[in-house]
Design a protein that fits this description.
Elements lengths: L4 H16 L2 H16 L17 E4 L3 H12 L4 E4 L3 H21 L6 H9 L1 E4 L10 E4 L5 H14 L5 E4 L6 H6 L7 E6 L8 E5 L6 H13 L3 E5 L5 H20 L3 H11 L5 H8 L1 H14 L8 H7 L12 E2 L8 E2 L1 H13 L9 H21 L6 H11 L9 H8 L1 H12 L11 H9 L6
The structure holds nicotinamide-adenine-dinucleotide.
The site of nicotinamide-adenine-dinucleotide has 25 residues, from helix 3 and helix 6.
Length: about 450
């Protein structure tokens, strides 16, 4: 004030110039442009004509189906919601109503009570596939079993009108196989929502081998209408997000048997900025989901090394917050995670049984192993063309997995610390007893050698 306006302007400029060069500023700009870049697809021109989407069908009114339907109701679009049995349908409708009432109560989304009724009136509940015949887009959210998906897609193929888009919300199943259950694989795509689907911004749009370009363009445009950040992924096990998170969790489990306890790991990565550490996240989703994936890995990739410590937890019947017990203990109706002596004792006993002498692991190593495991898998995803640009991977992690926005996502983080340092850390961890996961991806090696970056 005392020094005058001109001096004030100069001071403001000095501050601006200092701040604009910080990694945090760069990360926020990266997120801003990354979101826009995600909508640009190299082989699909932006003026590609799209299909008209007015009527939506959702198959399955469970956790995901209900949340998915809410996205369209919120955009004033009507939804035909299909279930196999009346009680499942009633349960699904009651959950949607409860979610809306909750939003109205807490003022989230500024939803007024009268709007709840308006939204609910846009749902047409049904038990008959015939009622989906007029839908332009039908999204399937039934059980994660290929045989159930097959049954549903064969039925949809029979009744859907020509030109209708058939979308799957499957998490880990092969979209090309699902498309092959129909006589119109060009109309089949994956819309992979994240839970809770009415809240999470991320939508992975998975293009199958035969997905039509206009189908892809239509879904990308629709995603904007329902206010999602859509990122295109190719077909692979877990797509972009879950494929990477599997490696991150694998490291977390290795560290448990090597010497740390869940609370230390969660605390370290939350201090780094993640919304939630791997164990609190696993408790929220239910540890049984990871168990099902691991059992499949043991069968399909018997040479892949995995710590079995999480299996012990499942064998103890601890399946997540929903059972009141998992990596942590939970009081009924509360979400506060309290470290569990039983679990911590089980982990220490597991190490002893495996002949592992537990060692102290610092927060730096915890964070490095978790974040760089994402980077290494992300690099492989880029090499394979499953993601076409590094910023797409960053957008997946910023909008779907609670990666700190101000760090810009795993690939930008790798750029920030430098690929030379990333590779060096990977080689260091490769020498440890659980080093099997640390062979640096070819893309990491190339960029380290050429002083390159993922995000150019
Ligand atoms: N829960 C998550 O966090 C999550 C996240 C992303 C994707 N997904 C995927 O979404 C899909 C659904 O998962 P969910 O968690 O909602 O499961 P869920 O068990 O809560 O719901 C599935 C619903 O589908 C119904 N259903 C089963 N067969 C049917 C059929 N033939 N016709 C109509 N309805 C049928 C069931 O009655 C049930 O209500 C799965 O493929 C899952 O992998 C789940």
């Amino acid at each position: 004030m005392k020094e005058g306006f001109e001096r004030g302007l100069a001071f403001e400029r000095e501050c601006f110039l200092a701040l604009v060069q910080t990694p945090e500023s760069r990360a926020l700009r990266h997120a801003f442009f990354g979101e826009r870049a995600a909508g640009k697809i190299a082989d699909v021109p932006s003026n590609k004509p799209v299909r008209k989407i007015e009527r939506i069908g959702v198959v399955g009114a469970g956790t995901m189906g209900g949340g998915i339907a809410m996205n369209f109701l919120n955009a004033d679009m009507s939804v035909v919601l299909l279930e196999t049995k009346q009680d499942a349908l009633d349960r699904g409708l009651a959950t949607i109503r409860r979610n809306y009432n909750y939003e109205a109560q807490v003022g989230k989304g500024k939803l007024m009570q009268e709007k709840v009724e308006e939204r609910m009136a846009l749902i047409r509940p049904t038990l008959s596939f015939g009622d989906l015949a007029q839908a332009n887009l039908i999204i399937e959210a039934v059980f994660e079993e290929l045989s159930v998906k097959e049954q549903v897609f064969r039925q949809l193929d029979e009744i859907a009108k020509p030109g209708a888009i058939l979308a799957s919300n499957a998490s880990m199943l092969d979209l090309n196989k699902i498309a092959s259950f129909t006589k119109r694989p060009g109309d089949v795509i994956s819309m992979h929502f994240f839970s809770p689907a009415n809240v999470m911004k991320l939508l992975e749009v998975v293009r199958g081998e035969q997905t039509g370009k206009d189908v892809l363009a239509t879904i990308m445009q629709l995603a904007k209408k329902i206010k999602k950040t859509a990122v295109v992924s190719g077909v692979c096990d877990g797509f972009i997000g879950n494929r990477m998170i599997e490696q991150y969790i694998r490291q977390a489990l290795f560290m448990l048997e090597e010497g740390v306890l869940p609370a230390q790991i969660d605390r370290a990565i939350e201090k780094f900025g993640f919304a939630m550490g791997p164990f609190r996240m696993s408790d929220l989703a239910g540890n049984d989901i990871g168990w099902a994936i691991r059992k499949r890995r043991y069968r399909e990739q018997p040479d892949l090394r995995y710590s079995r410590v999480a299996d012990r937890l499942c064998e103890m019947g601890r399946f997540g917050q929903k059972t009141g017990a998992d990596w942590y203990d939970y009081q009924p109706g509360k979400r506060d995670a309290a470290p569990s002596k039983r679990v911590d004792d089980m982990i220490v006993a597991y190490s002893a049984e495996q002949g592992i002498s537990r060692r102290r692991i610092g927060d730096k190593e915890i964070v490095e192993r978790l974040v760089l495991s994402l980077v290494n898998e992300g690099a492989k995803i880029l090499e394979e063309g499953v993601a076409t640009k590094a910023s797409d991977i960053d957008m997946v992690y910023l909008t779907g997995y609670g990666f700190p926005l101000w760090r810009g996502g795993p690939m930008l983080y790798a750029d920030t610390i430098g690929l030379y340092n990333v590779e060096r850390a990977m080689r260091k961890y490769a020498k440890q007893p659980n080093g099997c996961a640390w062979q640096p991806a070819a893309r990491v090696r190339e960029l380290a050698a050429s002083d390159g970056r993922f995000n150019v």
